[in-house]
Amino acid sequence: MTVSTEGTVTVLPPGGPAAPARPIPAVRRGSASRGTLLLLEAVVAFAAALVLPLLARGFKLDPLDRIAQVSGLAAIQLRFALVGLLFIAAVALAMRLRKGRHFNLTVRIAAAAIAGLASGFVAAGAVVALHGTPWPMFGLNGDSGRIVEWAHAVANGRPSGSPVYPPAPLYTLGYYAEWFRGGNTAYAFKDLQILGAAAFGPLVYLCWRMLLSPVRALAFGVAPAFALIDAYKPYSQTVLVLLVPVLVALVVSLSRSAAQGWRPLLIKGAGFGALLGVLFLTYSGWFLWSAAGVFFAALLYFPWRTGRLGRLKGAAFLGTTLAAFLVVAGRYLMVMLTEGQTTKDYNFRFDNFTDPAYYLMWRTDMPGKVGDWPPPGEYGGVGLFALVTFVCLGAAIWLGIRKPMVVTIAAMFISAWVMRMYIASHMYETQTVQLYTRTNNQLLYCGLLLCALVAHLVSQRMAARRAESATGSEAAGGTAGTGLPGREGAVIGALCALLLLLGTVSSSMADRYMPAKENTYRILPWVSHTITEKDGSCPKYAPGGTCSKDGDQTWLSFIR
Predict the structure, then answer these.
(1) DSSP code of residue 529
(2) Tell me: the pLDDT tens digits for 41-55?
(3) What is the arrangement of strands in the sheet containing 22-25, beginning at the earlier edge strand?
(4) Cβ of 445: how many Cβ atoms within 10 Å?
(5) Which of 68, 241, 253, 289 is most enclosed, with most CB atoms within 10 A?
(6) pLDDT per residue over 241-263, tens digit each?
(7) What is the separation, in whole angstroms, between the first and last Cα of the chain?
(8) Spatial separation of the C-alpha atoms in residues 517 and 29, rounded to whole Å
């Protein structure tokens, strides 16, 4: 007897599959459709993402005191672990009760919840860091100040200060401020920094669910993304971690377009185009660095050999995708193609003075105390992490050379690498940097994904061999003896490991925003506690009870 992926059980006669298979209904796991189940996962993920930030609002502590910061992180971690373990316990109970009838449903819910809890951890850290001040990180200084000013302008029908800056964050902030903050875009930006960080996990999880099962989406898509989660400007990194699975799903759909019916094909193409348009309006840099790789993957997986009708369907799918993209983002694309060419970035940062081939860690624009950088490695100056990444790049291509997911991610990695070197090679001639160091994030994310995909492909092969062994053993009248435990134990073990991994990573990423007077990201919330509020008073925990219009700027002496 074998169970198909379509929900039927096929009964094989003794001695093998000589007689025609007779499909009978499988054990019912509920009548919910796939769309309903995905909606349930989305609701659970977003709800879980809000649990920890809401609980953190009740913490009584001084966010500028280091002991209080550590206690706050521990309190968040405790709640994260307890809530996460409740979901894993539910999975274990579902395995034992009613013959595992609801096991798969419970796994879906638990994986979605863990994804939401993980980004909710970082958002809760931002709640602690900004406790007692209404200002966003860095107040009205630097990028946050410009974003607040431009959002206020567009919300009042005026042009922003930069036509090439992505409009979606500005309009979102402007209208959110009008609806919930009486038009105060500065105070509203604090809310969106917290909510944006919280939404990171659910969004990336749902995008990877287009390609992978719940636990695999959590392990091989969400976990690598948490190296990039950002509570200061959450939208830019969020676009990157969403764009990769969306573009991969686009190429996968293109490769299967010849077998699709016209209506679902065109609807799917329009959906991809609209989604890519929204992402482009939110942050466009990743599109530039990914374009060549995705173009290569699309050419490779276009249905060339499926006859005239198949090629026509492939062209229609791409055409519909492009048309929907232009409807959503065509105007901004034209601005980028015209005015974007004349916009120059002359701001040389810390990473512009380091080896351009090093991308594995980004110290940000405010690196703090730095010794030998990049850190010396064991192999020609290259560390073990880099070696593992490049080995996994080769192994992933070897194991998945025929899989669009692997090839597309590898092509995006190589595309970003080439664009990085191209821009950096002209840096001396033009005296501009054009944000090429931001390719660090894409290279790191794609590299981590390729490492995860090696584990994914190997585990798939192991599962396939185990199934073959079990089928062969049953056909021979015996029992399978693969030496491996069942799927249920693997799922529960993976969820436990991922809960602890994501909890540890989220704590680290939350800690880097804890207020401190130093030349790192910790200065961002520190300044927020030293800026005079709209009513003329100082934030509750302002050092010495003093504040000013621009906040404490004496930290600038650290970088001179």
Answers:
(1) T
(2) 999 999 999 999 999
(3) 2-3, 8-11, 22-25
(4) 24
(5) 241
(6) 999 999 999 999 999 999 999 99
(7) 73
(8) 55
